[in-house]
Amino acid sequence: MPFVRIELAGSATRDQKAGIVEDVTRSLVERLGKSPSAVQIVIAEHGTENYAAAGQLLADRTATPKQEVAHANVGQ
Which parts of the sequence belong to the 4-oxalocrotonate tautomerase-like domain (predicted)? Predict the structure, then answer.
């Protein structure tokens, strides 16, 4: 039984998370021959004030409009 944990800095919409779950499940079914009912997925969202990289909170970083659009369109 595959267990998948996905950690996101920030948040995703319900539709985005549903798409991620569909994609990951399909990949495990195709690549490992697992039954879709055997695939277990947990999505954990971390607020950008609770996640840091390179010594800086993500909440303190300024995203360019291009970065924000790319993030919003992931998987679409």
Answer: 2-61
Give the H or E element holding residue 66: helix 65-72
CATH number at residue 29: 3.30.429.10
φ/ψ of 59, rounded to 5, equals -65, -25
pTM, rounded to two decimals: 0.71
Domain that holds residue 39: 3-72
- 2 in catalytic set: yes
Q: Count up the domains in the chain and report the number.
A: 1
- Which residue of the set 2, 4, 24, 51 is catalytic? 2
